[in-house]
């Protein structure tokens, strides 16, 4: 899949799906179906228009591009969203971007998609334009709930990663460079690869999870992941993501690591002793191994 900033794009006939697509969840995938090009925004428009109201995102640009590419899309066009672009009217967006820059023959959007200055443009405005055909996709409902990025954010923050993955269509994942920690896990017999959560993105709620870890060599391994502040020990550190990769012995410091969360095993708790913690960690590792074997 080609990734092209909007200023560099060349007009040609395109079937374009338009949206923010944070998470690329199952509802988004309905919008994207049948398109050859996806048009999206970076950063999230709310971060520019109302910075104080900007949501913590489910996917960074790399993860979002990977998910969109997995749907068979040929081209991802990214709008560098800023104040100048936000000031454009809805009609300018249609004329200059959809028709002028992209040459859209078909446009697909969700029924709640809004665009242009003060969000004055909507799906009906697109439908009324005869220069392209417009497909408006109804909001997807699962278990009586609308599938939305905000709903999935709440699930992830609450630790419900398994159900969040069902709504996303793929496991919820985070990534980053492995950071140095206190090396306490090594002394306990469970050395961990540590990620420092990025406040711009959603991190699962505190607890222990079964996850699949992907290292920079492309290898995928089962992992037991603890997220929290390690209440059994007084560390002075903030929130940390600690991943114990099963059957792995190597140095991951300063290397990229992706964690795809499959299931929450338990909540974070304080143990009476390090020995009690180690006994529980052994049980967590066994559970993670079983769950990952079922999903890999």
Task: Annotate the secondary structure layout.
Layout: E1 2-5, E2 14-18, H1 26-32, E3 37-42, H2 45-49, H3 61-69, E4 75-80, H4 83-86, H5 90-101, E5 104-110, H6 123-127, E6 133-137, E7 141-142, E8 145-146, H7 149-157, H8 161-168, E9 172-177, H9 184-188, E10 193-195, E11 207-215, E12 220-228, E13 240-245, E14 256-266, H10 274-295
Helix pairs in contact: 7-8
How does this model look, in words?
There is one protein chain. With 296 residues, this protein is an alpha/beta fold. The protein folds into 2 domains: 2-138, Rossmann fold (3-Layer(aba) Sandwich); 171-295, Elongation Factor Tu (Ef-tu), domain 3. 29% of the residues lie in helices and 27% in strands. The protein contains 10 helices and 14 strands. It has helices at 26-32, 45-49, 61-69, 83-86, 90-101, 123-127, 149-157, 161-168, 184-188, 274-295, and strands at residues 2-5, 14-18, 37-42, 75-80, 104-110, 133-137, 141-142, 145-146, 172-177, 193-195, 207-215, 220-228, 240-245, 256-266. It has a 6-stranded parallel beta sheet with strand order 1-4-3-2-5-6, sandwiched between helices. Strand 2, helix 1 and strand 3 form a beta-alpha-beta unit. Helix 7 packs antiparallel against helix 8. The longest helix has 22 residues, at 274-295. The radius of gyration is 22 Å and the shape is elongated.
